[in-house]
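Ticket reopened. Same input as before:
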Amino acid sequence: MTTAERGSAETTAGADAWTGERLKAADKEYVIHSWSVQGALDPLPVAGGSGSWFWDYEGRRYLDFQSQLVNLNLGHQHPKLVEAIRRQAAELCYIGPGFAERSRAELAEMLAGLTPGDLKMSFFTTGGAAANENAVRLARHVTGRQKIVARYRSYHGATAGAISLTGDPRRWAAEPGMTGVVRMLDPYTYRCPAGHPDPCPVCTGGPHLEEILQYENPATVAAVIVEPVTGTNGLLYPPDGYLRSLREVCDKYGILLIFDEVMAGFGRTGEWFACDHWGVVPDILTTAKGLNSGYVPLGAMTVSERISGWLRDNMFWGGLTYAGHPLACASGVASLRIMQEERVVDNARLMGERLGAGLAALAERHPSIGDIRGRGLFYGVELVTDRATREPLVPFNGKGQAALPVTRLLKAAMKRGLYLTANFNVLRLTPPLIIQEQEIDLALEVLDDVLTLAD
Ligand code: PLP
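Engineering reply: fixed in the latest deploy. New output:
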């Protein structure tokens, strides 16, 4: 393209004339998609969405039983949320992070009220990974220590530090990565990693952490970071007492506890925060996704009263051009207000009960259902070839991803207008928190059909 052509309106004209085919072609040629071999992709061209549904250019509608990346908690195009962004855009799209700005201050104040315990001041980022990066760096500065304990079945984001904290194989391509990360095992009670009957030291939490600390020297450990309920790595709920025992061990050695609630926070589990189920408060809470329902990129690191005090007298070594972006913060304020006004957390709890009961009924008919884990609208259904041995459904069969039984099941569901995804052999059921009874029932009906492919 010549310099003259670049500036010409000709090259940008016709934006309204995009068809599904034109979109597919441009996407294939020019867009790099996350975590993919680009040539193997065939993404659906999406034309729009509303509530729990989105549709393609042919007008086919799909029930979004994922909330996209588990972030569209208020569903697609919530009118009040769209209007709040519009209003902020008309008033002030951007002002640097060094200024005091209303939507930023208001959101931080709301978070101090909504988050558990004495969590108080917030630093706003552009997403979950950046919130975790800042949490870890701050923990190191506050404690003067370097090591961070993180779990294997965890995902904390894709930036340099966050991917090093991540335990799952997405980390491998970034290795050796950030130094000082020490791993612990997860409380995966259905497949206890230590192979013990419950309660084992790993699934209890504290004893396993304590042993690791003895080898690492607890005086060198700044923080322990966990997802209170593990999201992308299989929807794992810790046994009662697990988080509390981590809290006690951290307190014993002056180690900070970081809860990554980027996915589980803001009503997803039927409480405002997943840690509320067990009444355990972290020193640092990281959030994103449901914080503003994903309408504008946003994340947050919210810190305890003690760390807030520390920050008043010490340098915070962190910053982003878009820290506390007014459009993002205004959407956060609006999103939290909508959640309160429309009693969205109550709806998540109620619809979750309906979903849980429906899944339990499906388990009676489908032997491929090995385990159902969930609260609120944060459910995992683990598929097996044999309930007695718990052999996972997904073993690689040599014919490629497309031939895997779970992939076939997901494709069949999509054909029936139900969008959901899986982590290996665990189906992820995470619809918008505003979903209605008949939509839950519709999803259960489709699941009943497609699960026959796995039985
Ligand atoms: N932490 C958890 C628990 C997540 O699920 C994710 C994303 O899925 C992240 C962090 C990273 O967030 P982001 O993609 O906004 O950087």
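The longest strand covers residues 378-386. The chain has a mean pLDDT of 94. Please confirm and we'll close it.
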